[in-house]
Specification:
This protein is an alpha+beta fold and 451 residues long. It has eight helices and 25 strands.
């Protein structure tokens, strides 16, 4: 019992709040005013605002829902929940659902029902996360909201659900996506290994390490506890550097561990300066942490009108990091699974390219997940002029470049080769430039087939 002026209040004592003004006159506060007074008594601005707001929406809840909320508050008190932040966020979520989200009665009842299951089945730590995340969702219609990163939910249809935790002994262990190998590391940390030129096998299909790529992708996490199920949703990743969209997807988000598990949707390259209708990736199954502005997908299909003739199977990664302008952005990223992609404009009677197709922002590379060498062959009507192999060619307006390429130049029946050199080929002007690479092989000599 705490004294405030000439009044006395008892918080949640049998869910009855009373005050005594004198021995001869006793007045009872109604339930919502009792909540307001107790929250005002904290002298905390947030709690006081929630107290005032719950009083304004209480009568519109209906007697049945009021009774359910009273029961949940009583259970929270019995389990040792604190006035702040637990009661404040619990009531704040309801207030935001009504005043900010303009939630309909069916969805509100659905949410209150899930909240009851959380209070009954989860520990206080997980329940606190649920209340906080729900309050933020209703206030901002976002799965995450802070100054540096906001993940808005747009054009969505949703409902709340509670999935009881079960043990699935027949499911394989899920991959650790944090420590798992990232195929895009070959761009950020390129290998400078040198190799001796060897003629490729006649049947390159059977030699490809890409056979393992036919295995099914890693299973997605199985969510449990309180979740929001989105029958459809467009996710807006908003940071100081980007505002980009995963459009027309669907999935579920955990309101405890912040994992979103989804399927489908498209992500374009407009943040890298490419047309949204010309360059985009179609997601298969995926998952990511909604607290981070990044997402990786193990399988999907890329469309790039004007560069590849058909959709390309591959992997995808997006991360919002600082960059000067769209042209300098290193994201989104894509890499084809295999090294057998036909690039438009790079194959004719005089030039043949065989390799992967990848995007690092708007820059086009030859990389592939199977990490096979890409091959460039230049010839005329009568003979082969030169051949180059690399795991990382870069294709620009009219040039093909590599900082680490195996090169063989042909002269009638002879040839000279180099294990690792920098190469620039201008196929518009048919001009080849070969320079020393800057790594360990910078002093390596050319070898000749004549000697």
């Amino acid at each position: 019992m705490k004294k405030l002026g000439s009044y006395y209040f008892v918080f949640l004592a049998g869910i009855t709040f009373s005050l005594a003004q004198s021995d001869s006159k006793v007045a009872k506060l109604n339930y919502q005013d009792s909540l307001r007074v107790v929250l005002e008594n904290t002298r905390n601005a947030d709690a006081m605002a929630v107290g005032a707001a719950i009083g304004s929406v209480w009568n519109g809840l209906g007697m049945e829902m009021q009774s359910v909320i009273k029961g949940q508050l009583k259970m929270m008190k019995e389990k040792g929940y604190k006035l702040r932040p637990h009661f404040v966020n619990y009531l704040g979520a309801i207030v935001n659902a009504i005043n900010r989200e303009s939630i309909d009665p069916v969805k509100l009842s659905n949410y209150i029902n899930v909240a009851g299951q959380v209070i009954e089945n989860e520990d206080i730590t997980k329940a606190a996360l649920f209340f906080n995340n729900s309050r933020d969702f209703f206030e901002h219609h976002a799965l995450h909201y802070e100054k540096s990163f906001r993940l808005y939910a747009l054009d969505d249809e949703y409902l709340f659900d509670y999935i009881k935790t079960e043990t699935f002994s027949d499911l394989p262990d899920l991959a650790d996506t944090v420590t798992q190998e990232n195929q895009f590391d070959q761009w950020d940390h390129p290998s400078t290994e040198s190799t001796i030129w060897e003629e490729p096998p006649v049947d390159t299909t059977t030699q490809s390490s890409g056979v393992s790529l036919l295995l099914p992708p890693e299973p997605q996490p199985v969510l449990s506890g309180p979740i929001i199920i989105f029958e459809k949703i467009t996710l807006n990743f908003s940071t100081p550097y980007d505002s980009t969209f995963l459009r027309n997807t669907k999935g579920s988000v955990s309101l405890v561990d912040n994992t979103f598990v989804g399927e489908g949707g498209t992500f374009d390259w407009s943040t890298a300066g490419l047309g949204a209708d010309s360059v985009y990736f179609e997601f298969d199954a995926y998952n990511f942490n909604v607290r981070k502005p990044q997402v990786k997908v193990d399988h999907g299909k890329l469309t790039y009108i004007g560069k590849v003739s058909e959709k390309v199977d591959g992997i995808f990664e997006y991360k919002s990091i600082k960059h000067k302008n769209p042209s300098s952005s290193n994201y989104p990223r894509f890499m084809s699974l295999r090294s057998n992609i036909e690039m438009l404009g790079l194959s004719d009677d005089n030039m043949k390219y065989t390799g992967g197709f990848a995007l690092n922002g708007k820059r086009i590379y030859s990389s592939s997940v199977d990490q096979e060498f890409a091959t460039l062959v230049i010839q005329n009507e009568t003979e082969k002029k030169f051949e180059a192999r690399s795991r990382l060619f870069e294709f620009q307006d009219s040039t093909i470049q590599s900082k680490h390429a195996q090169v063989k130049i042909f002269q009638e029946y002879d040839s000279i080769s180099h294990p690792t050199a920098e190469l620039i080929y201008d196929y518009g002007k048919k001009r080849l430039v070969i320079q020393k690479e800057k790594g360990q092989m910078k002093d390596a000599p050319f070898t000749s087939s004549f000697f």
